[in-house]
Amino acid sequence: MSSNNFTERQIEIMEAAARRIDSSGIQELTIKTLSADLNLSEAALYRHFKGKNQILLGLISYYIMKMSERIALILNDDQKKPSELLREIFASQLNTFVQTPSIVSVIFSEGIFQFNHELSDKISGMMALMQQNINSLITKGQTQGVYSKLLSSEAITTIIMGSMRMVVLKWKLSGNKSDLVKDGKGILNGVLKMIEK
Q1: 96-124 as b/e: b if 16+ CB within 10 A
Q2: Are 66 and 5 in contact (CB under 8 A)?
C-alpha cells in the first residue's frame, strides 16, 4: 500500500483534523468544525470520508504508510551497522514529529483510542511495526556480538521505545520547545552504550 491511495483532498482533510486535535483536543473535532477549518461544506467533506472515525482511521493509516516507506528506505542499506540504522530510524521519526507536531497529538493520545477498537488496533499495528524493526536490529547486533545478550532483544526494544515515548511526551508538554531530535539522540546513544560490548 502506498500513500497514493489517498487523494490530495483526503490528505488535506486528515492533516486539518490532526491540527484541530492538536490545538483544541479530540472533543472539538467534528465534521462541522473541520468543514469550517477547510472552508468546505459538510456535504463536500462527507464525499471524502463517511465521518470522523473514518478520518482518524485514514490519518493513522496514512502516517503508518509514510513511516513504513521511510523505514524501508533506511533499512535498504545493508552496509550499515545496526546502531547506525537505529539512529537513522529514530532521527527520521523525531524529525517527522518536529515537522508535523500535530501528528503526535493523534498517535500519542490514549483518549482517542481507549473506546474505539478500530483505532486502537491501528495504533497497535503501528507500534508492532516499529517494535519489529527495532527488535530485528537489536537481534542482529547481538548475533554479530556487538550488543550484550544480558537482556533479551525484546527487553532492549521495550526500553528504547519507552525511552523515546518519554522524550516525545516531554517535548509535547514543553509546547514543542525542547530539542526533540537532540534529546532523542542523547537517550538512544545512552541506551546503545549500555548494551554495546
Answers
A1: bbeebbbbbbbbebeebbeeeeebeebbe
A2: no
CB 130, CB 161: distance < 8 Å:
yes
Spatial neighbors of 18 by CB under 8 A, at least 6 apart, are 59, 100, 102, 103, 105, 106
Q: Tens of pLDDT along the chain (197 residues)?
A: 344 689 999 999 999 999 998 888 888 889 999 999 999 999 999 999 999 899 999 999 999 999 999 999 999 988 999 999 999 999 999 999 999 998 998 888 776 777 788 888 998 999 999 999 999 999 999 999 999 999 999 999 999 999 999 999 999 999 999 999 999 999 999 999 999 98
Single pTM value for the model = 0.87
> Alpha helix locations (H) across the chain?
8-24, 31-38, 42-46, 52-75, 82-99, 102-107, 110-113, 117-143, 153-173, 180-195
Contact indicator for 126, 107 with CB cutoff of 8 Å = yes
DSSP state, 5?
G
Q: How many angstroms separate the CA atoms of 65 and 73, rounded?
A: 12
